[in-house]
Amino acid sequence: MTTKRRRIKNRFYSMIRSKIGRLFILTVGILLLGAAGLNYFEKMSSITDAIWWSFVTITTVGYGDVTPITVGGRITGVVVMVFGIGLLGMFTATVASMFVEGNLREDRGLNKVSVTDHFLICGWSYEVKEIVEEMRADRKLEDKAIVLIADLSEKPFEEEQCYFISGEVNEENLEKANLAEASAVLIVSDDRLDSYSRDAKVVFSTLTIREHNPDVYICVEMTDAKNTRHCQRAGANEIIVIGELSSSLLVQAALDHGITRIITELVSHRFGNSLYKILPPESLVGRRFIEVLATLKEEHNVIVLAVESQDTNNFLSNPPVSYTIKADDRLVIISEHRPTFARQA
Fold first, then answer.
1. Which residue, 113, 256, 121, is CA-closest to 185?
2. Is the domain defined by 3-106 classed in CATH 1.10.10.10?
3. Sheet strand arrangement including 146-150
4. CA-to-CA distance for 312 and 235, rounded, in angstroms?
5. Considering only CA atoms, which of 45, 57, 51 is closest in space to residue 33?
6. What is the DSSP string of 197-228?
7. What is the mean pLDDT of residues 247-275?
8. 119-246 belongs to CATH 3.90.920.10
9. Which residues pair with 163 in a beta bridge?
10. 78 partner at 20 to 30 Å CA-CA among 20, 150, 263, 271?
11. What are the pLDDT digits (tens) for 125-169?
């Protein structure tokens, strides 16, 4: 027996052994038994009419177009009504309870997800909902699946294409979240813990994720800059230090009044212009930075802010006028919407 046939056979036997499988078989059995009994006692002209009568009797519709008149036919009708209606009720109730149980399991974060190329958010703080809203504001991420792994008893909010896995970041939950096919991971700092414990948990989560997927891009949030070295060694690609960033913005606000409003606009996709990283259009490859800057501004109302050089693996903010744009460079731009004129990085 081939592997495929054996798998189908095992699934069939598994269905029979399950409660819903047994109820389905018993219901169909009563349906066919009633049809056979009516056809025998009433001498029906067509077996299909007998099956139709048995079906409408079990479902309590009872059109009355077929009515047994013999004693045997009526006894058959009693058997179908008593056992058939009960079995059908149990069958439909079991199906309904399966749907309810499935929704409850999903809300409690017990189900395995089957999405791919998704964003995985690990940890919980009250800013997670804002992170999801920020993602949805970008047209590139409008329909992209998001999976949240958090130590919560139930799903914290409802959002389309957003799935929840309850528990800590461990091998079992990462497998449930399909880490192997995730496009990026965000690890947030748990605001229910003290500063040291928050960063320690982030480092441990980073290490666990990197161990199970060496290639996924990991962005983490930390509270103390002193712990960034540990997180880098654990395998984080980008680290955002909460206190350090807010301190810099406060100083900037004091030195140049109101400039932080521009920074807020640029890092948010929910209003105004935003920052995007794109591959340069083929028509601009090999041209000087000043030409690319002028062309994109004039033709697309886009400002080139920096260039990510793949040769040096570094960002060049405000590149020299004579810098030549290469095919594998990335352009960091300011635009009202994610551009469609170039391939996305």
1. 121
2. no
3. 162-166, 146-150, 119-122, 184-187, 217-222, 238-241
4. 20
5. 51
6. HHHHHHHHHHHHHHHH-TTSEEEEEES-GGGH
7. 85
8. no
9. 147
10. 20
11. 888 998 898 888 887 787 889 999 999 988 888 888 899 999 999
Q: What is the pLDDT of residues 180-227, one digit of tens each?
A: 999 999 999 998 888 889 999 999 999 999 999 999 999 999 998 889
Say how many C-beta atoms besides its own lie within 10 A of residue 195's C-beta.
14
- Taking the C-alpha atoms of residue 206 and residue 221, their distance in angstroms, rounded to an integer, is 11
Alpha-carbon gap, residue 344 to 276, rounded angstroms: 9
* Residues 81-97, mean pLDDT to the nearest whole number: 77
b/e burial code for range 147-180 (CB count within 10 A of at least 16 → b): bbbbeeeebbeebeebbbbbeebeeebbebbbbe
Query: Measuring CA to CA, which residue among 143, 152, 153 is closest to residue 122?
Result: 152
Say which residue the tokens 């461990």 belong to.
Answer: 170
Q: How many CB atoms lie within 10 A of CB 27?
A: 21
Residue 45 confidence class, pLDDT cut points 50, 70, 90: confident
Cα dihedral angle (111, 116, 117, 118), rounded to 10 degrees? Answer: -20
Give the sign of the dihedral formed by CA 174, CA 267, CA 230, CA 124.
negative
Question: What are the pLDDT digits (tens) for 16-29?
Answer: 456 677 777 888 88
* Domain ranges across the chain: 3-106, 119-246, 273-345
Please tell me which residue, 175 or 253, carries the higher pLDDT value. Answer: 175
Q: What is the pLDDT of residue 7?
A: 57
Residue type, 212: H
The arrangement of strands across the sheet holding 314-317 comes to 274-278, 330-335, 303-309, 314-317
